[in-house]
Amino acid sequence: MAYETLIVDIENHVCLIKLNRPDALNALNLQLLGELSTVIKSANSNDKVRVIVITGSDKAFAAGADVKEMSEKSFVDVFVGDLFTDETEELLRCRKPIIAAVAGYALGGGCELAMMCDFIIAADNAKFGQPEINLGIVAGIGGTQRLTRFVGKSKAMDMHLTGRFMSAEEAERAGLVSRVVPVKKLMEETMSAAAKIAEKSMVTVMAVKESVNRSYETTLREGVLFERRLFHALFATEDQKEGMAAFMEKREAQFRDR
Ligand code: HXC
């Protein structure tokens, strides 16, 4: 299917989604978010896809929600229309791992979109920020909540209250991104991480994603119990038998997602 705001390519079990509104630094308008939801939904149910990667251009991952599209909306428009709720639901529902490969600006909704992914690989030119305060609004798709969990209250307050941008180096130091690579190597490194994940058992990959995400939603004791039960449950899979046999036989495991 052809999209107007995205370039989508599925190869070697990886669905690569490139945000593609270069004239607007990939600002997230409703069309783009709608197309993104459609792609994520279909990737989630496509057996050929094991990992999803979302990226932008070297200049911008996404410079935020589309200010030009939002500027004339009233409170009633956005509240009754529940702006950005349906538009982001598919990302939260997706059970396959999603990696954000971020170069350039990841601001406002762009930073929030990256944080909704399972982890972020940043290029050395990446700039993260929540500058909504300069527009007289707050973040709208989780920025005040997720950034605080990533980097702690002090830095999250600093970012949201001043609207300043954070470099890739600072973002790595603060725990917002998992690694920083030279901008020219961003896609190579990200696709290599995606390929590595794609080789694993999909059952185990889904269990990992669910368990790590549970740590955001529950107490430590409940989270550890959830993890323990998943750990136990995976002993019912053929992939656990294969993974452990392969280790003992000193060979690569051949997982079958069973
Ligand atoms: C609409 C945008 C945009 C945005 C950039 N553009 N960001 N259009 N919405 N968020 C457009 C510009 O208007 C311009 O188009 C073109 O992209 C290039 O941008 P420039 O500003 O000329 O580029 P530059 O000087 O390099 O500055 C880059 C920038 C700046 C620092 C990223 O564009 C900027 O500050 N953008 C806004 C960032 C922001 O406030 N984001 C938060 C949005 S609110 P024209 O046609 O004029 O050439 C938000 C709320 C989240 O995200 C709610 C939940 C989703």
Please give a structural write-up.
This protein has 258 residues and is an alpha/beta fold. The chain has twelve helices and ten strands. It has helices at residues 30-45, 67-70, 75-80, 86-93, 109-116, 143-151, 153-162, 168-174, 186-198, 202-214, 220-233, 238-248; strands at residues 6-11, 14-19, 51-55, 60-62, 98-102, 105-107, 119-123, 127-129, 165-167, 179-181. The strands form two sheets. Strands 1-2-3-5-7-10 form a six-stranded mixed sheet, sandwiched between helices. Strands 4-6-8-9 form a four-stranded mixed sheet. Bound molecules: hexanoyl-coenzyme A.
SSE string: EEHEEHHHEEHEEHHEHEHHHH
Share of helical residues: 40-55%
Mean of the pLDDT scores? 98
Uncertain spans, ≥5 residues at pLDDT below 50?
none
Quaternary structure annotation: single chain
Order of the strands making up the biggest sheet? 1-2-3-5-7-10
The fraction of residues in strands falls at 15-25%
Structural class: alpha/beta
Global morphology: globular
Features:
258 residues, alpha/beta, 4-stranded mixed sheet, globular, binds hexanoyl-coenzyme A
How would you concisely characterize the structure shown here?
With 258 residues, the protein is an alpha/beta fold. It has helices at residues 30-45, 67-70, 75-80, 86-93, 109-116, 143-151, 153-162, 168-174, 186-198, 202-214, 220-233, 238-248, and strands spanning 6-11, 14-19, 51-55, 60-62, 98-102, 105-107, 119-123, 127-129, 165-167, 179-181.
